[in-house]
Amino acid sequence: MLAAFASAPDGRVNLGVLADSKGVSAAVYYPAIRDLLAMRLAVRIEQLTRDRRRWYARSGDDLVWEGLSAMISGLQRHFDQMVGPVPAAASGTRR
Questions:
Q1: CA dist., res. 87 & res. 81, Å (int)
Q2: Number of neighbours of residue 50 by Cβ within 10 angstroms
Q3: DSSP 3-state assignment of 56?
Q4: What's the pTM value of the predicted model, to 2 decimals?
Q5: For every one of its 95 residues, what pLDDT tens digit does the chain have, with 9 covering 90 and above?
Q6: CA 63 to CA 69: how far, in whole Å?
Q7: Can you tell me the distance from the alpha carbon of 23 to that of 93, in angstroms, rounded to the nearest whole number?
Q8: How many Cβ atoms from other residues are within 10 Å of residue 89's Cβ?
Q9: Which of 7, 46, 76, 94 has the fewest Cβ atoms within 10 Å of its own Cβ atom?
């Protein structure tokens, strides 16, 4: 979820869309989004489309998100070196 927020050009994430892209249920992200909301690193935003899916936006200083993005990229490179890249279709099940 941090990677999704850090890489979102507009800083917004839809849990349903994220879950669909990873092949998992949106419910797997509920604990993480609750924690991000509690830490004020994300905020719930108004409904952007007519569907029921909830949208969230990252909050906080851009330097925080730039640092997180760099850390996530480094961890991804490390993971890929250790176990090899995960095919896109399997990325939701192995990460």
A1: 14
A2: 6
A3: strand
A4: 0.73
A5: 888 998 898 899 999 999 999 999 999 999 999 999 999 999 999 866 676 778 999 998 888 888 888 999 899 889 888 887 776 555 554 44
A6: 10
A7: 7
A8: 8
A9: 46
